[in-house]
Automatic annotation (TrEMBL):
SUPFAM superfamilies: Family A G protein-coupled receptor-like. This is G protein-coupled receptor. The chain crosses the membrane at residues 23-45, 65-88, 109-125, 180-198, 218-236, 256-276. Pfam families: 7TM_GPCR_Str. The keyword Nucleus does not apply. Keywords: Membrane, Transmembrane, Transmembrane helix. It comes from Pristionchus entomophagus.
Length: 302
């Protein structure tokens, strides 16, 4: 369903986007396309949490028995968060610095954004792949025991090793780094959202309809941000931090986590389709045969 919904959203973006949306439609299209990529990766890697007395982590139960694929999968979820911050930046510039919006149509600026997102993603991959301590005494033996429980000769993944209920300083530092990165990304999005809202309120040249439209788009973006935070980042941050508190996640939480996680790309597309009027009307006209014309309203801000 997620692939179908995001493919349908891509069609709506192509057919029903107003001309004055400009580069904004490409940002929305990037979200939809990347959600399809995440759904495919989720199906291939088949990531599952593993909780034992000695291990606390995730593993691929497919043919990809290596930590590299779990690290790549984890790193790929930094891309939507980065795109959301770019999205908030775009909305802020639309109101505060409308002349800068043209940057999003320039190849050099697009390449610059691509490099920034790639650096953040690669950094997350590195701390996932190399940050945890795998040199502690008993780690390899415990991993072989875990493999035997699943009738496998070899098993690997993203693991927090707990030796006698404690974890190494290196692993603690890595887990705190996860928290710091997520906190920086979250605060950036919140700050840009607040600045955009305040700028909409104080901008005297905006008409009533433009002000209402900008608030509606900003609200849709905020709700779109809540979807991955509720269904992806909050559960996994809790999962990461439990070892720091000496706690162990309940087994039922580990069992349902992948299913909750997989809902994110589908809900992401639904939020955009339901909250942005052009695409909502376009979907209604296709599904129920009610063709509605889209009226383009000129505004200095868009």
């Amino acid at each position: 369903p997620g692939i179908i919904l995001n493919a349908f959203l891509l069609y709506l973006i192509k057919r029903f986007s107003r001309k004055d949306l400009g580069a904004y439609k490409y940002i929305l299209g990037t979200f939809a396309f990347y959600d399809i990529v995440l759904i495919i990766m989720h199906g291939i890697i088949d990531l599952k949490p593993v909780i034992t007395d000695q291990f606390f982590g995730v593993i691929s139960f497919n043919f990809l028995y290596t930590s590299k694929f779990t690290s790549i999968y984890g790193a790929c979820f930094m891309v939507p968060f980065s795109l959301l911050n770019i999205h908030f930046l775009y909305r802020y510039w639309v109101i505060k610095y409308p002349y800068r919006v043209a940057y999003f149509s320039r190849k050099r600026f697009i390449f610059f954004l691509f490099v920034c997102v790639s650096i953040i993603t690669y950094f997350w991959y590195c701390i996932c792949e190399h940050g945890l301590d795998t040199t502690e005494p008993g780690y390899l033996e415990a991993r072989l025991e875990l493999a035997a429980e699943f009738n496998l000769s070899y098993i690997d993944g993203w693991f927090v090793f707990q030796r006698h209920g404690s974890i190494s300083l290196r692993t603690v530092a890595t887990l705190l780094t996860y928290d710091a990165v997520m906190m920086i990304m979250s605060m950036t999005a919140v700050s840009l959202a607040i600045l955009t809202f305040l700028q909409i309120e104080r901008e005297k040249t905006l008409s009533f309809s433009d002000r209402h439209s900008q608030k509606r788009i900003l609200s849709a973006l905020c709700i779109q941000t809540l979807v991955p935070f509720i269904f992806v980042y909050a559960p996994y941050l809790s999962f990461f931090n439990m070892p720091l508190l000496g706690l162990r996640a309940p087994n039922i939480a580990a069992d349902i986590a992948p299913y909750v996680h997989s809902l994110f790309p589908m809900l992401d597309a639904l939020v955009i389709m339901l909250l942005i009027k052009d695409y909502r009307n376009g979907a209604r006209s296709i599904l129920f045969g009610r063709e509605e014309q889209v009226v383009s309203i000129a505004s200095h801000a868009t």
